[in-house]
Each structure stands twice: as structure tokens, then as C-alpha cells.
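Example (one chain per record):
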Amino acid sequence: MHERSLPASPNWYCSRCSDVNSSGLLGVGAKNIIYLIDVSASSCRVVGELVGHKDFVSSFSFCQHAGQSHVCVSSSNDGSVRFWDSDNKVLIREHAAHQSPVAAVHWSPLDKNLVVSGDEKGVVVCHWHNTGDTASFFPEPRTIFCLTCSPHTWSSVAVGYKDGMIVLIDVSKKGEVTHRLRGHEDEIHSLAWSPLAGEDAFYSRPEDSEANDGVSAGDVAGCYLASGSKDQTVRIWSSSKGKAVMTLKLPYLKKRGSAVDPGVKERLWLHVHWPKGQPTQLVSSCFGGELVMWDLTRAGKQRWTLFGTSSEGQNHSRIVFSVSSVRLQDDRELLISTSMDREIKCWDLASLDCCWTLPTLGGFVYALTFSPVGAGCLALGVGDNMIRVWNTLTTQNQYDTRSFWQGIKSKVTALAWHPQKEGSLSFGTDDGKVGIYDVFSNRPPQISSSYHRKTVYTLAWGPPVPPMSFGAAGGKPSYSLYSCAGEGVILQHDPSRLSGDAADIDRLIRDTNSIKHKLSPHTDLRWKPDGKVVAIGNEDGCIDVYEAPALKLLCSIQQHHKMINTLRWHHGHGSSPELHCLLASGSSNATVYVHDLRPVIENPPESPVVMTEPFRRLCGHTSKITGMAWSPHHEARLVTVSYDATAQVWDVLPEAAVCNYRGHSGYLLCVDWSPVDPDAIWTGGKDFTLQEWRVSKQEFKKPPKGKKMVDLKEKMKANPKQKRKNKKASVAGGATPPEMNGETVTGGEKAAGQELSGEEEEDEVGSTNSAVPPSVSAAFETQRKSFTAVKSKDKPDLALLKKKKPRSMLPISTSMDHRPKEDLLQDCITLASVKHSPAGCVPGQGEHVHLGLFSDRQALYRMFEAEEEGHVEAGHFDSVVYLRLWSGDLQGALQLATERGELNDHLLSLAPMAGFEVWSRTAEAFARQLCLQEQYLKAASHLLSINRLYPAVDLLRSHKLYREAIALVKARLPADEPVLKELYTCWAGVLERDGHFSSAAKCYLAAGASFDAAKVIARKNDVASLRTAASLARLSGEASLAQSLALRCAKDLAVAQDWTAAQDVLSSQDSLLVHRLHLCAAELLAALLADPQPCVSSHPWASPGRRPSSIQDRVREVWEEHFGVSQTSAGQRSATALRQELKSVESPTPSANIPLRQVHLYSSLHLTRAVLSWLLDDDGQLIKELWQAAAWVRDAGHFCVSAELCRLLFPDGDIRVCSRKRPKTLDHTEGEAKAAADSLQAFVHYHRLYQHWWTHSAQIQSRVPLSAADSSPGDGAKDGAVNGGVSEPEGSVCPATGSFGELDFDASVLLSEHHAACQATQRSVREIQERLAAMVLQHSRAQGGQLHPEEKEADGPIVQTSTASESSDSQRPEEPETLLFLSTKMSQQQKLLADLPDTVKMFPHPDVVECCLVLLHLSKSSPAVSESLRQQAKDLLRKHGTSPAVLKASQQFLT
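Predicted structure:
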């Protein structure tokens, strides 16, 4: 087996593409192969492969049970599930129960015989390893992404789907669904069960225990399940309750110096892994390849820890797909991860540091070469668009590799180290690019400005030849870089000036050797190590040897008869001089030739020598030769690689086979001998692997005989004709293209390493069975697709070689010339008699119709008539038209074609010969015909040719080709043509209906309808569209429209908290100054209220800074400083004009459905009016507007925000002090202003009351718990306590002390008798309305038909419950509630309500009953409440606290 190896990259986008068993054996699915890797804490080693799947491996799992850990299972897109023995690398059993690609498979951790798999159609299959039985279930018609078996209940399986659904099924009950876990919004990438049974693992925090809904630990049997989804969240689920108990949002980590933008949807695969024995720790992948360890017992940023933070470069650079763990014998737990960066990493779970990294390959290994200067430095050219440089001699890290990808956009197909300059590596790519990397620096590569048109096959460093002129600085020899590519051209590049043009050496070869004919395309070149001669291989199999520097042709080797793929000169150090001139060559034939060129090189001939016999012939390979290398440690020892998937070592002089290596599973493409170890050879190929192997350890000596070749030889013996047939078929398939190493797969491998193309699949199968015979290999390999497409249809293929004979225009006369010989001779006599005695037969008619061709014109016309009749009967009307054209009846021909609808361009081009009328009529008919064929543009152009412009425009418009119609009108008609505006308007309407508003606006602008243009752009209703529409309206002079659109745009920006942009939109129009003031107040309000969501942009003056005396002071300061609005402002900036303009702006009725940001805007509107009233010294309006500002927030249900706003408006708690900076005192003695002031003061004291209570909430709760169960003061108090407690730390004013202090405000304001009566009456009205509604509903159901017993039971309690809540009197059966009774009661309550003063209803107070309860609670633990205040509260409770909840809460105070 191989010593060291780089395997193929693990497959991407698979939920479980790798797994590790208890012995430390890692299995990784790559392409259609599973690689087995022995892992430890210090190193890893590829130990084998499991080959057999026909499509890429989608999932892999080991059996984790003792005594059976060597057994594993894999699934594939080919629909199969295979069981393997990893010790012997053999297939145990294959199941084909799935009909679709299998997405996931898992071996149960609890049952050693159970394996569960799921496919893309949603089918789940249970496989029993011991019996081979299967059972299929179909729990959900969804696409399965992942599944996992429970480690605690053998029958429980979790399945994750593409649409975000997770389903828990019981396989013992035929796949019955036990829970559907909903919460994720996108693909489920991974699932992991907690290693600990039960659901009490991480309830160590109070908030988590609250989320448990009161279920104590251990009450319900179950287990936690972790899930990772594309929606960027990890969720922890309770399997017993079927719901999520925790959600973990992925952290946005800084990467490459910039923060991750949460708004940008990045590529993500979220894998989760729950390590064994660590129930509170969870491992997950993250955005950029990082691994995160979550501590489920912590909160905030302490909850997660990154892997690999001890040093740079430990983490993956791209997303992670799979994670698995193993505990070693020394109790160290290792974590293995696979990633899109094509690396497998091992992590120590104790330190979270990376132990080692195994690079993998994502494409064919096209080239490998050891550096001649840096010992053991191996470069790889790979089909995943990267170069790897591996230091193979390092002792600390045996896989010390670096990857180079900058400047490379396609497969790396050729490499060459500089012979003397260390670290200088040239590369060639599949897209024809040539460049040079300095592998010891981080600089991007130098790229040659001269590109090849096809794939670069070979690179070589050699002495410069003309016309390149390099100076040899300091006596050191200089080198040129030579590249050979698929188009057959060799270019010479100047490495010091790659930006210059490269030279084609064919010109020098022709000039030096006086060659006039075209040179054969080149396929390879190799300079002799001493730089004296160069060997060039050609597509025709010829090898030419040229002498430097003039490239004089010394000899031509004509032994190969197929394309030369590789050439190698024997090394010139430490060997016999007679070996220095050995040249080995390999072609698309399977034989390797070695040529001795010493006589030609040492004694150059005057004229070129042709060599037809090789020095040595090495036979054994069964397919094309793709690479070779001479041993630097031996004399005349050569290694060759071939399409037969083997590497062969030869002892050249005796033509003896030394050993044969068969470790690859696909074609080999490159080989090199280790420069430091005589026994080590490195090979790479199409199986995506690089392998190191030892010559002394190989058991085979010669390549295997190919099965295909044996079968073909037997066929040839049985049927000698088969050989000639194959030869013809290969010629028909086409000549072998000039490509090196037989590489014909363009795009064969995929970067993801997941899928195999059909061609690759054939390559893989062919390589295991051996290859095609040498005689047909080239044509078969290079023309595989085209050849296989027709090889089963030999007869049609031969028929295609014959040209189809066109139909005759004169079929009748032609058929008459195919009669028997006697009849043809008689025709000659008849024709002669007609010539000399016209009284005989009539040529062109009857049985002598064919003789019309040999007689006069009239006879020809008669023959044409007969032929026309025959064509009409056969349906060949085009032939009839041509016959009429030939006879000169052009008009008749056109008429016939018009009637048949068979006019064409050729006939129309002939129509002018018949006159303008005929041409015009024909053109119109052809236009109609083209319309039926939906060729409208062509039809319009033909109408234009006869100057029918308006019909052409109508034609285009009728078929909705408005763009073309407008272009035509503008090009041919005056600018003021009415039809142009009509076209623009029609097109705009169509575009508007289709949602293309920008294009529609352009049409309206072109038609002069600027108003419509602005309106249609505004229909999009986003910020950018509204801003554009406002600018458009302003430029067009539509002032009112511009104002309304700018205002709409500014409001949207304000809601998004993009304050700077909102002000910019309004600043373009002076008439919107008052709205700018409104947004200024809104911005200040949002900044001071500390909106939890960050704003997009803001002004410097809106920063909170030190808190001012009041918010209205701050608003007025900013207005005066930045907007020029003050008491002395005049004109449009006067407060009177601004307030009058702002009166037209209305705000809706407050409700709980309005978002908080909208609430801020509406509240700030009243704040703006209040400040304007302040500037006008209108104290009454000022207090009413301040009341409205506070009421808006309060009525929208935002208790905390309302409390904070009251503190901002009146920091001292006294509403009479409107401003300290500008002494302003408000005294209202009558009317609505006094009512508004009293109401506002009551709410300010209301919030201060709760603030006083919350300061000592812990003490209060320990003594008198306030809950719905015992003493709730009402819904308002309960909600206020819950909501208000959230913001208490921010707004606390009273210091926390050991005992209560005196109340620092007049609490008697809260105990208003009038408002208590009003609130009680309003509660009674609401209760009566609810009972009336219930009674009407019951009555309507009864009227609709006989109620079912269930409906009666359901309806009965409605009335009983409602009446029970009113009073005990209504519960008596002798006085049932009737509609009349409730209506009378409603009238009484409404009369009481109407008798109350309007100001009481217009400006309400806080709930008086609630305030009474809070004051009485305070009085129990503190003397802060006076005795008179307590007595007043009790009196109000007895009088107005009639609801059952209040009565229950007040019992302890009133008894």
C-alpha cells in the first residue's frame, strides 16, 4: 500500500459525509469513494479505500458497538446503501430499497443491527444488519436533508427536511410521527441528540427554568435534540414536549479585517455535534469556517468560545460540513472536521486547538514535480484551480503544504521549477494562461501577457533562442520559459518581462531549416539538462531533435504513430556518459520507446537524420502513456504511468520490468521520483489523489492484462472483418485532437468534489477493468461522446455519408427517361420524325410529354403544364412557382404563392420585375403571412420597403412592440407627430400594469406627462422611488405633488431611523420646514428614549450627551440653532404660520397594533405643536398638546416608554414647571386646559408611584406577592409591573434604602372621586355590552335551527359566566337576565356617564382602583402613606371596586 497520500476532498453539502469509530479510524466520503484514514492526536495516515458506489457518497456512518466497530455503512446518490468491512476493505451487503438518491444514513448508537436511511423523496428505510431485512416508511412528503437515531430510545429517529421541518418518528410503529418540531425557516443541515438522557441538563439559570413552563426536572422522560439550520440559528428541542427550549443565534465574527454584515446572505452550512459526556457543551460550525463551542449554561457572549484562538491560521477558511469525535485510550477527545477549504482538521476538545491538518484534493492531479534546488519540495497542479507546494521532508508536520490560488481561474495542468532559482515555479492552466509564482512570498503571480488558445500541456526552462536576447549578467546562464499547448504552438516567454510578447519558435525552426510546408502541431518539448538540444514531440507521432540556439534539426524519430504525450531525457549526473543522451518517449500508444541520440548529438550531421528503430522498447502497459520520470539515484531506471491506472518501473537496458503499482482507482496522469529516497515514487491521477509508494514493497511486476483487450482479441480471431470495421469507425469518429497526456475531459471534475460526469464515470470503471487496446485507444478516448452516440447505429451512420439528392423540378419527364432501353430508342426515332415531318405526334403532351424538352418552346410550355399538374397533385407548390417563373409568368407565380401562403424572400425580391403594383401587393401579402408566422419585425420592414410607414407602426403597436414602433416613428417622422405621444402613453400603461414603473415613468416623461411620471414612480412606495418621484415632480414644477411625495419619503426614512436622509429629502423644499421641525423633535425623542434598535444615521445634535432639563428645552435649542425658528421669527418661519400649517396633519387613534417607531412619530407631532404653542405663549394649547404627546404613547400600550417620556417632559415631577432654562410656569384654573393639566399631573404621579414601589420590589414580593392568583390590583397594575420592570434600572431615581421613605409627591391627585365614578361606569357599560353580545349570538344560533347538544353545552356557560361577573343578584334563577333587563341597565349606566363632566371623559386619569390597591400595599410595609390617604383609598375601593378580581384583592385591606 502507499506510504503517504493526499486523498480526494470530502464531499460538500452533506450532513454526515464523515465518521470516526472508537479505534480512531476515520471514514470520509469523497466523490464515489470512501477513504479510510487512521487518526491520532499527533498524525494521520490514509490506510485504504472503499470503492463500489456509482455516484457520489452522500452519507457515511460507523457502527459504534464493541466488537462491530469495523463495520460501516454508506449511502449514495445512486440510491444504494452499502455495508462494508473496513478491516478487509470489502463489501458485505448492498441494499437497493430506495428509488431516489439517498440523502442521509445513520447507524443506531443503541441497536447494533439497526441502520436508518432517508432519501430526497422523503422515504425512510430501516435496514437490519443481522438479517438483511428492510422496512420502508413515508412520514412526510418532503425532501430529507439529515437524520439521526436516538442514543437513548432505539426506535426514536429525528429527521430534518429541506423546508425547515423536523419530525420525530417511531420506527417500531411503522414510522409514526410522534412530534413535528416547527421553528426553523430554512434547510435543516444537521441534527444531534444530547448524550445524556433526561431534560434537566442545563436548567441552571432562572430565566431558563421559567421557560420550562413549570415542569420540574425529571417529570417527563425525554432527551434534548440540537438542530442546525440555514436560517443561522441552532435550536435545542425537548423531545418529550415537542417544542424548542433554547435558540442560539450564530455570532457575527470579524473576518479578514471586516465585520460580517448580517443583512448579506452568506454561504452557510450549520453543522452541530454534541460531544459524548458533555451534555452542557455543543459544537457548531459558523459562517466563515470557524468552529464554536457553546456553553448552554451561560448567557450572552460568555455562552460561546471559538476554536483555535491560541494562534493564527488554525481555523478553516471556508464553511464546515461535517464534525465527528473520538475518545482515545489516553482519555483525550479529538474532534475531526471537514470543510469547503479542502482540509480535514483534528482538534483537541480540551484545549480547542488544532492538532493537525490533512490537505485534500478537489480535482485531477495533472502535474507533480520536485524542486531541483529545494530538497523534498513537491509542487502539485490540481484541477481545483490551485497549486499545492508540499515540504515532504519536514518532521513536525508530515503534511506541511501551502496552497496558491491567486491569479488562477482554471485547472492547473502544467508545472516546472526554475533550474537554479529557489522557489520560482512556473505554471500553465486549462484556459491557456502561463505564469510564475514565488512560493516563498505572498505576492500574486506574474502572468504572461501571451495566452494560449487551448490547454497548456507542458512547461520547460531552457536556454534562450532567437529572437529573445537575454544578457548573461555576471556570467550566470539565463533561462527562457517555454510553453506548449493544445493548439500545437510552443511559445518562448521572457521570465524577467512577462508583460512582453512571447515568441513562437516555429518561425525560427522554419528559417533555420528552410522549411516551407506547415509544421505538425507540437504536443510536448523537453530540453536536455545541459541545454544543448531540445526534443519536440508532435501530434503525428514524430519526435524532432533540434540543436540550440538556432534550432537546427539534427534528427527526426519516426517510431510512434500516435500523438506524443511525454518526453524525458536521462539525467546527466553520476551516470555513464553513454546514458546522458537517452531520450524516453510515450505516446497514445501503450509502448514506451527509449532512443540513444549520442551519435547525433556528439557528431551533428549536415542534413537531418531519420531514425526508425528505437534503442530499447518497453512493452507491458495496456493503454496510453501519460507521464514518466528517470530515477535520479539509478542508471537507466525509468518509471512510467498510463491510462491503465498503473505505474510501471523499468530497468531500461535489459528491458526488464521491475515492479508495478496498482494503488490508484483511476487513470494516472503524472509521476516523479523522490529526489532523496531511491525507493520512493509519487504518482497522481484522475482519482483526485496523490500517493507515495515504495518500489521494494510492490507485489506485482508487470501491468495487468486488460479485460477489454483480451475480449477484443478473441473477437478478432472469431471474426476477422471486425478489425476493418473498427478501423473505419475510428476514422469516422474523427482524428485524435492534439492534447497531451490524453486529457480530453474539459470540466470532468467538479470543484465541489461531489458529482462525476458521465465521462469520468466511464473513466473510473474502465480503469478498474483495464483499458482499450492500443490500436483504437486514441480515437476512442478523445472522441468518446461523439463516438458512443452513433456506434450502435452503423447503418444510419453510413447513410449520412451519402449526399441526399435534391427533388427534381421535372419529375414526369425524368421518369420517362428511366423506361426500358427499347422505349428510349423509340423516343429517338419519334423525335427525329417530328423534326422532319411535323404532322406526326405532338411533343410535350400525353406519352410524349418528355420530348417537349428537346423540341420548340411551345412544346416546352406544354411539358411545363403537365409537370405543374403533377406537382399540384403531389403538393409541391414551390416547384409550381419555379416553373411559372421559368416560363415568364411572374405574376401568376406570385399569385399562386400568395394564395398558398408560401411567399418567401426570394420570390419577393423578384416581384419588382412585374411592376410596382405587383410588388406592393406582394409585399403586403408577405407582411400578412409573416404576421401569421409571428415575424412582426420582418413584416414591418417589408411594409417600410413600399413606403407604408403608418401601417408598419400600427402593426408593431398591435403586437405590443412599442419600443421598435417608437424608434421607427422618431427616425422617420417629425418630433411633434401625434402618434408618437400616443405610442408613449400606450407603452407606459402596459409597463405600469406589468410593474415596470421606472420604464413607464420614462415614457410619461417623453410624452410630456411629468405628473404621471412622478405618480407612477411613487407606486413602488419604497424610499428610493419616493425620493426620485419627489425630485422629478419638483423639477417638473409640480410643487404640491413634490411636497406630498417628499413628505411620504421622509416619513418612511424616519420610521427606519435614517434621520439624516429624511432631513435631506425635506430640505430641498422650503415649504416643508414645519415637517423638518417635526422630524427634528422625533429624532431627539428617539435618541432620549434610547430605542433598542440602532438608527441608520443621525445628526450630531441628536446625540444624548448630558440630559437637558426637559425635552422641550432641547427641542427649542436645536430649532433656534439649526433651523432658525424662535419667538422672533417672521414670515414663513414664524411660529403662527408653522403651527397653522401643522394643524392639517392628522394622527390616527392610538392602538396596540401600531409599531413603536410610528408611535414615536405621532407623539413627536404633538410635541412639535406644544413647542410651537410655547413660542406663541399659548399655555392652554401647550398643556393640551403635551397631554396628547404623553397619551399617544400610553394608549398604544407602551408603559415603560410612557413613564420615560413623562420623566423627560417634567424631570421634577411638577407639570407647572415647563422649563427651567427659560423660566416658564403653567397655571390653569379652568376649562379644558385645567383638566388636561390635572390628567397629565396624575399620570406623572402614577409613574412615580410605581417607581417608588419597584425600588423595593424584592421586599414587597417577599411580603405581599402581587399576582393574578391572590391580590392583583387589576390588569393595568399587573401588566405595568411586568412591563415596567424591564426598564427600571435605566430610569430609577429613588435610591434603594433599607426602609421606605416618605412619598415625594402628592398621591391624593390619583384618588379622584369623579374619575373613579367615571371609570366604574365605563366598566359596567363594557360588561353589559359583552353580555348583550353573548345573548344576541345565542339567540341567532337558536333562530338558525335546532342546536346540537354540544352547542347548547358550549353556549350555556357564556351567559352564566358573564352574569356571574356582574353581581350575585343575577345568579338567582327566579330573576333571569333578559334583553329588556340588560337594555334598561345599559340606559341607566349611559345616563350616568352622560351626566359626568365632559372634561372627565376627555382627559382621563389612571385607574383609581388600581392606585388605591398600590397605595394600600405600600402602607402595609411603610409609613410613607398617611392615614387620611389610606382611608380615602379604602372608601373609594368600597364604593367603586365591584369587580370580582378587585374584591378579592381588596379583602385583606377592607376586613
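Caption: The first strand starts at residue 5 and ends at 6.
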